[in-house]
Each structure stands twice: as structure tokens, then as C-alpha cells.
Amino acid sequence: MLLWYNSRNCESEGGGKKMKAKREYGDSVDGERDLKRQRVVDSPSSPHEEPLVPYNDDEDDERRALNHIGSREEDGRRVENEEEDDDDEDDPYGLGSTLGRSNRQVEVRRDCPYLDTVNRQVLDFDFEKFCSVSLSNLNVYACLVCGKYYQGRGKKSHAYTHSLEAGHHVYINLRTEKVYCLPDGYEINDPSLDDIRHVLYPRFSREQLEQLDKNKQWSRALDGSDYLPGMVGLNNIQKTDFVNVTIQSLMRVTPLRNFFLIPENYQHCRSQLVHRFGELTRKIWHARNFKGQVSPHEFLQAVMKASKKRFRIGVQCEPVEFMSWLLNTLHADLRTSKKSSSIIHKCFQGELEVVKETQSKAISEKKESDGEQNGALKITDGQIENNNVAAETYRMPFLMLGLDLPEPPLFKDVMEKNIIPQVPLFNILKKFDGEMVTTTVRPPARMRYRVTKLPQYLILHMRRFTKNNFFREKNPTLVNFPVKNLELKDYIPLPAPTKENEKLRTKYDLIANVVHDGKPDEGFYRVFVQRKSEELWYEMQDLHVSETLPQMVALSEAYMQIYEQQQ
Description:
- Helix content is 26%, strand content 24%.
- The protein has 15 helices and 30 strands.
- Strand 9 and strand 10 form a beta hairpin.
- The longest helix is centred in the N-terminal third of the chain and has 23 residues, at 2-24.
- It is found in: Nucleus.
């Protein structure tokens, strides 16, 4: 009986202490664990007497990772699970300071005996930052010995387990860029690891931006291959060449490139697509890469999510559709208000004057009831009515201009071959002279277009593909265009400058030319781009990058072009 009474007393005393500890720590989930830790630290027999001994409190790392740092309500008070992180001042998930967080100190050392095991050949930071075991993106570390990603660095974490099983001891946090030695747990502060940090998150200064278009120096990868910053190949994951040619074309637009090379320009934006596009831009123009190509894997994942799988890996799409969607989405995500502009509109936006002529039954019935003659003219609310035709004039902005190609011949010549027609670019540009009529089927109307404002960068799209109920056709017509000094004022009427002393800039130079080769459903895309520092042209098809002659640029089936306005 005495023993039973004592055990009941012990249990009640223990329970009372636990209830007191829970109240003391604000009813947090980690209260009991923190209390145990305090008892171990305060105990005179504890071996942990040094003030800088690393203590890892990740006993429930897997459970908290699966809970996705959730928050819940207990007794009317909001309690949030803390993220196992090395820096208490950083709060990337916006959780704020949590109750029961311990003030831990991590030893920082400059000397580490395992630095010689770092293998830069296997490091690849182009892929998504997910743990290779738990598939979680929270608190992920990269093993600098084998290149794999693991979560956490506590005693029950996957990175800690990997360090014991494989004997790999050097890890870098993919968010904070801090390097640790596991299982010892101390932080490594060594300047020899700065090149890895620069590859993980490339950085550019304002002075470096000014020198990008003047730099003629090649860079060398770890495998000994040479590459040009800004002219690196992009990996084709699976039928993603339409994304690659679009990205390579946009990288030639200097203001757009400079904007995305400085993350502070869009740090207010919460769009994942904007930040992934900025990361990809910095990797393409980085001069200290470990390899001579870049994989746009993270950017493609952001594209699939933002477009709701309209553009996805493994499905071929047209670059003009992707270009239009990308520019409009980036503009919508970057602007701070509905009326504000963005770097997208500053580069590509022009203005058209549209005259739309439509047949109106209501107008004809009204005329008959009023006894008017068919040949009479009537102007109402900016619309001109003539012979039951209502002409409406309005202005609309544009980011690219679509050009219609003449129909190819249906019959073969005497040599039993189809003649591939050729057409000058100026002939198809007449669509925008304000006089040429373009007929639309749905809705039936006659349209006339006139350019009233020229953009700094002009995007032209040659409509080569047409769809019907049975198959998809491609127009093989070749377009003859100038590589330099495209003078628009000689072929289409342009408005006078708004200011007296302002000179109207109407000359353009080609900077990118997207080409389609092969059959409509089985072909592939490649792009010709210009390197401004040497005014040389390069042909780029996924990972393949080679120098070419300017004459070869004009001999291809042009699909989409970007022209730069001469200043």
C-alpha cells in the first residue's frame, strides 16, 4: 500500500509539474520538450557545459515537415510549429516569432577537415529544391559531396542520416546559403565556398550591367568547355523548344534583361513566375557557371502552374502563343495597380488605329422606317454609316504584330516540284498602312489598321500555321527581310512626333529571329540571335550554340522576329 501511495503521489507531482510547464510556455506544443531540454542543460551532471555546443532540436523533424509548418488553435490561442532553421532572424514563411523557440548558438569555424571532399562537378542547382527522400521543400540542404538534396540537419533528419551512412559531411542550406558540417553541426565560414554561393544565386551590380554588352571575354566551365555569358544553351526537357527559343529571344532585349538581373526591382512581387524568370535570366548571363548550359526546369514548373497546364512539359506549342501569354502575365504580375505600367509595356507596347466596318441589320431597318435612301451618309457617336455599313474607329495597344503570308501555289510546276514563293517583308507590312482591308470571318467585318505609336522593340509574327477540321497546314513562303536598317516610314504611314524637337525613330535592327523547320506537327524551333559586343550572329537550338553568318539568317523560314529601335 505504501508503495502504491508513493507512486500515485509521484504521478500527481509529475502531472502537476507538466501542467505548470505547459502554462509557463504558453500552451505550445514544444513546451514539454523545451522543459526537458532546460532540465538537461541546468543539471550539474550534464556533459553539455560549453556555451557554443550545437544543440539540434529536430526530434520531430519528419512529423513537422509532413504537417507543412501548420498552425492550429488551442484554447483560443494560435500556436504555430517552428521551422528548424539556423537563423532565428529569418522568417521566410511569414510565421513570425513562435512560442517556445530556443535561443540556440551555432559554432562558426573557418577550418574544416572535410572541405577537400567538396565535388563541384556534381553540383546542379537548376532543379527544384526538394528533398530527395521526403519530397518536401522546407529547410532543404544540398550535399556538396554528391549533389543530392536532403531535408533538415537535426539528429533525425535525412541530411544527418545521409552524413552518417555515406560519410558526406559538407552541406549548404539552399535558402540561407550557409554551409554546415554534419554530424558535428558547426557552421563553416570559408571564402573558398563563395563560388558555390554565386552559382546557387548569381548576383549582378549596376556597374556589371553596363559592361554586359561590351564584354568579349569567354568563360570556362569546370569540364574545360568554353561558353559565352548570355549565349548558353538551354536544356530541352521534353518538347520544350518553344520555351527555349522564346527565352533566348527575350534575353536580347536589354532593358528587360537589366530589369530582371537585379532582384530588388521586383522584390515587391509575390508571383512565382516573375521570380523564376529572374533566376533563369541571372543564370543565363552569369560568367562563373560550373557548366556551359542551363536547365529551365524550375521556370517550366512555374509556367505550368501559372498557365494551369496550358503550357506543359511534353506537349509542343507555338512560340507566339507562349510569348503572348508570358508577356501579358509578367505585366499583370509586375504592375502595382491596374493603371500602372511595367517594364513589359515600356519595351514592347505600341498603338494601332483600327477602322472596323460591319453590316448592321438594326441600322438598315431604321433607315427603311425613316425613309432614307441607301446612298445616304450618317455620322452618329463617332461611327460613319454608309449603305447599311457602320464604320467604327478606335485605338488599341499591341505587344506584337501579326503578318499574313500569301497562299502557296496549289499545283506543281513542269519539273514536278512545288515552287516555294518568296515575298518581301515590306509587302506584308502593308497590312498596317491604313488602307489595305483585312476581312475577318467571325464576326464578319472589314478591318483597316494603322500604326500610331511605335514601340522600342517591335515583335513581328508570320502566321505560317493554319488549322482546319482535319489537319494542320504550314505555309512555306520565304520572307525576305533586312537584318539592319529596317525603315518603316517608307512603307507605312507613321504619326508625327508629339514634341517639336523630338525626332521620330523609324529605323530598326533585327536582334532575334525564331525559325520553324520540318513538318507542322513534327518540326522543331531554333533561333538566330545577335551578340551586341561583337555584332556576331549565333544559331541556337536547345543545347546547340554555333556562330553563323548574317546572310544565313535571312534564308530561313522566319516565324517570329524581334527588332530593336535605333537610338
